[in-house]
Specification:
The protein is α/β, with parallel strands linked by helices and 379 residues long. It has helices spanning 4-14, 28-43, 144-147, 150-155, 183-194, 201-214, 225-236, 241-249, 254-265, 282-288, 295-305, 335-338, 359-377; strands at residues 17-22, 47-51, 78-84, 90-99, 102-111, 119-126, 130-134, 158-162, 173-176, 268-270, 275-281, 311-319, 322-329, 344-346, 350-355. It contains 13 helices and 15 strands.
């Protein structure tokens, strides 16, 4: 009987067109791991695409190989086929015309004639015959990529690669390693066991980027010997560590620095610094010329400098009567469980919810609740 790794390799080898997808609430680790897998499969000569809904052109990880080929949506997933029975007639000419939002095919026979029953239509096969998800705990977390193509995801085999304890095991093959610190660590060992000769400098650079991002440049408290071993092996495979460090930690743009200032000016610490929170308004973002997506870099810096933090919470004023709650969870605390009373979305590491309260009321109401939850968890 094949083990899980062998099943993954066998499924990949028999597939003609592969789609790699990651969550719309992705972190750098998921992007890097997905790009590493894409790059290796391309080197192997396979037809493979990659999709993630919220990827930005100027993302912190845009220096990685093949980043520019990430698609934000899925197009041309399936062909529509019109068939004509030509057993009773011979074709002389075929034309088409478009008029009033209608496509007409004009078929001129050289012999015989066509009847309405000679024509039938059908949907063709899907463009991809295998989906590999990276860091996706449930299919809904793919966002519009899933919502707009539900039939495709239910009719196509899925390899589900993850390290989250709340993964729903939605794939035909579920490779969920709860002991792995980073998704890139999982993918590294999979690829090493599959085709180690294809672990090029580009592939290794993607994987080391994911590990460095997830461990905050090897400063996180959940760092393991296995993660360090993987990192040293990736450097031996020509991973470009200096390039990674330069892009992740030595090239902060002015927008991030301005947002960092706004964030710090409203920073609070609770429960012996296990709960860190701040408030932001639309005005703050305008003044910083930044977006909420830029918060990821700010929070990364915060996590490095406050190692006791278990939760980082941002209250963002969407309107006078509506506040967005953004919760970054650390140290194996499930963000979705923390926000289960609210209409949340996201995954175990990053969840968001909309609270129908103004900014001050929302923070005053929710912070005591979060403190109590952390106390119950012993964090």
């Amino acid at each position: 009987m094949l083990n899980l790794e062998q099943q993954i390799f066998k499924q990949i080898e028999k597939s003609k067109n592969i789609l790699i997808a990651f969550s719309k609430n992705q972190d750098g680790d998921a992007i890097a791991a997905a790009l590493a897998l894409l790059t290796l499969l391309k080197q192997e000569g396979r037809s493979v695409s990659i999709a993630g809904q919220t990827v930005q052109e100027n993302n912190l990880f845009s220096f990685l190989p093949n980043y520019t080929v990430i698609e934000k949506s899925l197009s041309n997933l399936r062909r529509f086929i019109v068939s004509v029975d030509i057993s009773q007639a011979k074709i002389s000419q075929i034309k088409y015309a478009v008029e009033n939002n209608r496509l007409d095919f004009i078929i001129s026979p050289s012999e015989g004639w066509f009847k309405a029953e000679d024509v039938n239509t059908r949907a063709g096969e899907f463009r991809y015959d295998l989906i590999i998800t990276i860091g996706v705990n449930e299919l809904e977390s793919l966002g519009a990529i899933y919502d707009q193509n539900i039939e495709f995801f239910y009719k196509t085999p899925i390899i589900n690669i993850d390290n989250q304890p709340n993964n729903e095991d939605f794939g035909q093959i579920n490779f969920v390693d709860l002991n792995a610190v980073a998704l890139s660590e999982i993918v590294f060992y999979l690829l090493k066991n599959y085709r180690p000769e294809l672990l090029s400098g580009d592939v290794a650079t993607c994987l080391l980027t994911g590990i460095i991002q997830k461990t905050k440049n090897f400063k996180s408290t959940n760092l393991t010997p296995r993660t360090l071993l993987a990192s040293s092996e990736l450097i031996a495979y020509q991973a470009r560590r200096e390039e990674i460090i330069t892009h992740l930690y030595r090239s902060r743009n002015i927008k991030t620095l301005r947002l960092w200032g706004k964030f710090l000016s409203h920073l609070h610490a609770e429960n012996n610094e296990s709960l860190i929170w701040s408030k932001l308004t639309a005005k703050h973002l305008r003044e910083a010329e930044a977006s909420l997506k830029d918060l990821d870099e700010v929070v990364d810096e915060l996590i490095i400098n406050i190692p006791r933090a278990s939760l980082v919470v941002v209250f963002y004023e969407k309107s006078i009567s509506e506040t967005e709650l953004i919760l970054y969870s650390l140290k194996n605390i499930d963000a979705l469980d923390i926000l289960k009373e609210y209409a949340f979305q996201g995954n175990g590491r990053l969840a968001t919810a909309i609270v129908k309260q103004d900014l001050e009321t929302a923070s005053t109401m929710i912070i005591p609740e979060l403190k109590k939850k952390l106390e119950k968890l012993g964090a």
